[in-house]
Structures are given as structure tokens and as C-alpha cells.
Specification:
The structure is a single chain. By secondary structure, the protein is mostly beta strands. The chain has a domain at 1-138. The protein is built from two helices and 24 strands. The chain has helices at residues 2-6, 87-95, and strands at 22-25, 37-48, 54-69, 73-84, 97-104, 107-114, 126-137, 141-152, 156-157, 161-166, 170-171, 174-184, 187-201, 205-219, 222-272, 276-281, 287-293, 296-301, 307-312, 316-318, 323-326, 336-340, 346-350, 356-361. A five-stranded parallel beta barrel has the order 8-10-12-13-11. The longest helix is centred in the first third of the chain and has 9 residues, at 87-95. Residues 1-32 and 117-121 have low confidence and may be disordered.
């Protein structure tokens, strides 16, 4: 679907730059030799960024690449490509595109302007792509609003970053400033973040190497997270794989959660129609409580662990090698008390009648 949407129309605009834009003929492949118009226009601009602390980028149909500089300048290069069977129409699209730069207070805006509205027929078929490369001061806050366009950020990002991307991918390295992302119909791939707030909808793949503090709200998305110190997760209709989790809270429905290692705590969890697998439930876990509805809880416990699980309202319970007590009273017969090791702290679990619990040694 993305490829069809990208074929709709892509127009970027020259800009209020200090250099005149140049027009270059794009190479035409043998399959495209019947096209009446196939050209690329290069737009460039450089601006003084003294007194500017935030840059907003608004663009669509293509790609945005971010680069940093230690100079107090904002500059861009845009490659605008138009291909169509109507030469006059294509030239109007190409020449009608520009990049607008404006400032208000301490904020600057770079925006793609499409100048073809009202001048050429929108019923004609064409392809349009804009590749926009923006160079900005390293510590300046970045805000980008993109549609049918992806964004590529450098390996090291120190300023605050706020991204709203629809029908495009987000790729970036490490972030030491606050990172906010709203992504729909795309993929996300990041390195290490200090603090991030992510909203993902209909994303086929969200990957993050590590995070100190991470809040994710994901719908119809698959998550692959590395090492996370503090996680707040809300997920629906997807899957989440977590490498190592120190502490967190999960609220999910129709989502399978797989955690390789749980180190400290998992509290205030509400899960329905999906399993929770923890492959290494370490002895250092001090708090663990959840409510599961139509889902299975599977724990593989560190042999050195000592605690008690008070499991209520579970349809089935398996805990080979551990002391398990359950009531014969019909009203409470689905309640189990599992003693791991020498016992100690108690973890409260509620299965809502239709969930299963499995506890085993690693």
C-alpha cells in the first residue's frame, strides 16, 4: 500500500535560498524512455540560525535526511524528481515546487510548498519524489511532520526530537535528549535512548536497542526491544519481545509478550487474550503482580529465587518441583499457593478463571 501511496504525487519546492536552483535531467532507464518528462531539480538554501532554538520540518512524498553542524546555520538540499507523460504538466509540477523558510521568535520552519494546485489538472498521472537533506545545529530541537515520507537521523542525537510520521519509516541512532515519536503505517529502528515516548499504529516492525526510560503505546504493531531499565507499555493486537527488563508495567490485549530476563519488578499489569513468557525470572525480582484474562503466564525461575506466588482464579496450574497447595473447596478450588525455594515475599496473580499458569526451574 505504501508504494501505491508514494506514487500519488510528490512535490517539494525551491526555497528562499541564497543560490538559484538548478535543473538537471535525470537518467532515464530503457523502460522509461516513453515518458515525455523525467527530470530532477536541485534546490539549495542556507540561513543564519542565530537566536533560533527549534526547527520544524514539514514535508511529504519522499525522504528527509538530518545532518548536524557546530555552526549557527540551517541549510538544505532538496532533490525534486518528477516523471510524467505530459511534458507541460511535468514542468509545471517541477517548477512549482519550492522550500519555504520562515521564522517566528526562536522557531524556524522549513516547509515543502507544492505550487501545482489550481494550475494543472490533478487527473493526470505522474510520480513525484523529494529527497530533502537538512543540516542544523547539533543541540537545536527538531520537530518533523511528514506524510508519505521517511526520516533518517544521525548516529548521535543530543537535542530534543519530536517526530510525527505517517506512511514512512523512522531510522536513527542514539538519543540523549527527549525523543517523542508518533508513527503510523511505518517501521521504527533506533539505537540507545535515554528517554522516549513512542506511539506506533499499524507499524510492522518497531526496534530499539536499549532505553533508560521508555513509554510505548502500540496498536497493531510488533515490538523488539533490547535492554530497558524502566518500561511503560500499552499494546493491542501485536507482539512484544524484550531482551532484558529491569522494571515495568504492561497493559495489553490480543498481544503476546516475551521477556528474556526480568531483573527487578513487573507491577500493575493487566493482560487479556495473549501470553506472557518470562524465560529468566531472576532471584532479584522484588515485586510481581498481574491480572490475566484468557491468557497463559509462563515463568522460568532462577534456581536461587525464594518467593511465594498467590495465584487466584486460574483454570490450570503447573509447577513441577515446587510445593503447590490448592483448596478442595469448589468456590476457591482454582486458587494455588506456590512456594519457590524457601518462600518469602508474596506475588499476587489473578487468572480470571480462564488463564493458565506454569512455573518451572530454569
Amino acid at each position: 500500500m505504501k508504494s501505491l501511496l508514494l506514487l500519488l504525487a510528490l512535490t517539494l519546492s525551491p526555497a528562499l535560498s541564497q543560490a538559484e536552483p538548478t535543473v538537471n535531467n535525470a537518467p532515464v532507464s530503457p523502460a522509461d524512455r516513453t515518458l515525455a518528462f523525467d527530470q530532477t531539480r536541485t534546490l539549495e538554501g542556507t540561513f543564519n540560525a542565530k537566536g533560533i532554538s527549534e526547527l520544524e520540518i514539514k514535508s511529504s512524498f519522499g525522504q528527509v535526511n538530518i545532518e548536524y553542524t557546530d555552526q549557527k546555520t540551517i541549510s538544505y538540499t532538496a532533490e525534486v524528481h518528477i516523471a510524467t507523460n505530459d511534458e507541460a504538466y511535468g514542468r509545471a509540477l517541477l517548477e512549482g515546487t519550492r522550500i519555504d523558510y520562515s521564522t517566528e521568535g526562536n522557531e524556524a520552519t522549513l516547509r515543502t510548498i507544492y505550487g501545482d494546485e489550481g494550475t494543472v489538472s490533478n487527473s493526470r498521472s505522474f510520480t513525484r519524489r523529494v529527497e530533502l537533506t537538512v543540516t542544523m545545529p547539533r543541540k537545536m530541537k527538531l520537530e518533523a511532520k511528514l506524510k508519505y515520507a521517511g526520516i533518517l537521523l544521525p548516529k548521535s542525537n543530543v537535542g530534543s526530537v519530536d517526530l510525527a510520521v505517517k506512511y514512512g519509516n523512522i531510522v536513527g541512532g542514539n538519543f540523549t535528549g527527549l525523543l517523542r515519536i508518533n508513527n503510523k503505517y511505518g517501521n521504527i529502528k533506533l539505537g540507545t535512548v535515554v528517554e522516549a515516548e513512542i506511539e506506533a499504529e499499524y507499524d510492522s516492525d518497531v526496534r530499539l536497542d536499549s532505553a533508560e526510560k521508555l513509554s510505548i503505546e502500540a496498536d497493531y504493531s510488533n515490538l523488539t526491544l533490547g535492554t530497558v531499565d524502566n518500561l511503560q507499555l500499552k499494546a493491542k493486537y501485536g507482539a512484544a519481545k524484550i531482551g532484558s527488563l529491569a522494571k515495568g508495567s504492561i497493559k495489553s490485549s490480543y498481544t503476546n509478550i516475551d521477556i528474556d530476563v526480568l531483573n527487578k519488578s513487573l507491577t500493575d499489569c493487566r493482560m487479556s487474550y495473549g501470553h506472557l513468557n518470562i524465560d529468566n525470572f531472576q532471584a532479584t525480582v522484588s515485586a510481581f503482580d498481574l491480572t490475566a484474562n484468557f491468557g497463559d503466564i509462563n515463568l522460568k525461575v532462577d534456581p536461587k529465587a525464594n518467593f511465594v506466588i498467590d495465584a487466584r482464579n486460574f483454570g490450570a496450574c503447573k509447577a513441577p518441583g515446587f510445593d503447590v497447595k490448592n483448596s478442595n473447596d469448589y468456590a476457591v478450588r482454582r486458587n494455588y499457593v506456590i512456594t519457590v525455594g524457601k518462600g518469602g515475599k508474596t506475588f499476587q496473580l489473578d487468572g480470571r478463571e480462564y488463564s493458565g499458569l506454569s512455573v518451572e526451574k530454569r
